Amino acid sequence: xxxxxxxxxxxxxxxxxxxxxxxxxxxxxxxxxxxxxxxxxxxxxxxxxxxxxxxxxxxxxxxxxxxxxxxxxxxxxxxxxxxxxxxxxxxxxxxxxxxxxxxxxxxxxxxxxxxxxxxxxxxxxxxxx
Length: 129
Prior knowledge:
mainly alpha; 2 helices; disordered N terminus
């Protein structure tokens, strides 16, 4: 054995192929492409954060509205069985709201994953649409 590993000079094959063109122009083009991909990833991440913040605000608003309505109902009910029924209805509504929120978050996550796959595909194609 001569110590040489398969795959070329120095015993390794680079994970990122060298630029096809030679010289500073090729290096500048590669750097520009890298910067554009990072900027695209940052824009995507920012849009996800905005969507998540908006969704969280909507869920919080709905929860507060439900709690206010439940408090009003419980305050006006006179007989204990009616209070129990109102409490059960509140729990049912809370459970429904929780399931609806979970479905919305799942849909948001699926959209985010789709966007990520699309961006990765663009990166692997060299930034070409």
